[in-house]
Amino acid sequence: MGLPLCPSVFSPPLIAAAWCYAARVHEDGTSSRDGLSVCTTMWFVAELRGGHRDRLPGLVSEWMLPVCVHQGQEVGTTIWAHRVQFLEERALPQWEAFTIWNAGRQGRRLYRSLTAASRRKVVAFCDVDENKIRKGVYCYEDSQERPKPCVPILHFRAARPPFVICVKLDLTGGAFEENLRSLNLQEGRDFLHFS
Fold it and tell me: 3-state DSSP call for residue 191?
């Protein structure tokens, strides 16, 4: 039986989002509903390890829904760590520098989760919130580095791609999506959605 991985509400668009449902997931990607709950976020872990869905042996995972719900916080932390590792291994090596789009909680969490080498590639945070922009800088106070790493906070129009976007889609009445569209960027080359 595999590690029970249940995605949170922050399921990553970088990979296929999956939700708990009553099913069994088999190595060929099929699932059978039989009253057990499984979270197909396993595919993310398989892809992260360089495999493919059809290479997973036997029954990927099987557990009861209460297990997913009960372990939600721990599992959410594990999924986050895997997502950051995937980002650092697969996406960030292609970029010499990048901007994190969101100077709020999720953007700062991503920044703090990155390795020191990846953090050095972050040239700015960008946002639309005037209070964050007015603050002007985010300093990572818990860093062991001296001096403490500080990253400027810019308006999104003043920031340079590529972007790692830490803004959830469909939560701003289309404002975020319109801002992103206005920059005429290409997904995968100029930006990636992370949350």
Answer: strand
Q: CA-to-CA distance for 18 and 179, rounded, in angstroms?
A: 27
What pTM was computed for the model?
A: 0.67
Q: Evaluate whether 42 touches 75 at the Cβ level (below 8 Å).
A: no
* CB contact at 8 A, 147 and 122: no
Minimal CA–CA distance to 19: which of 68, 73, 62, 84? 68
Six token digits for residue 109: 């969490």
Angle between helices 105-113 and 72-86 (to 10 degrees): 70
Q: Which residue has the tokens 């889609």?
A: 169
Q: How confident is the model at residue 62, as a pLDDT? A: 41
- The reported pLDDT for the residue numbered 47 is 46
Q: How far is CA 76 from the centre of its chain?
A: 11
Total residues belonging to the chain: 195
Distances (CA, A) of 160 to 13, 99, 116, 124, 132: 22, 7, 21, 8, 18
Token pair recorded at residue 122: 């972050």
Q: What percent of the chain has pLDDT over 70?
A: 61
pLDDT at 32 > cutoff 50: no
Distance CA 159, CA 75 (A): 34
Neighbours of 86 (CB within 10 A): 20
Q: What is the C-alpha separation between 41 and 56, in angstroms, rounded? A: 13
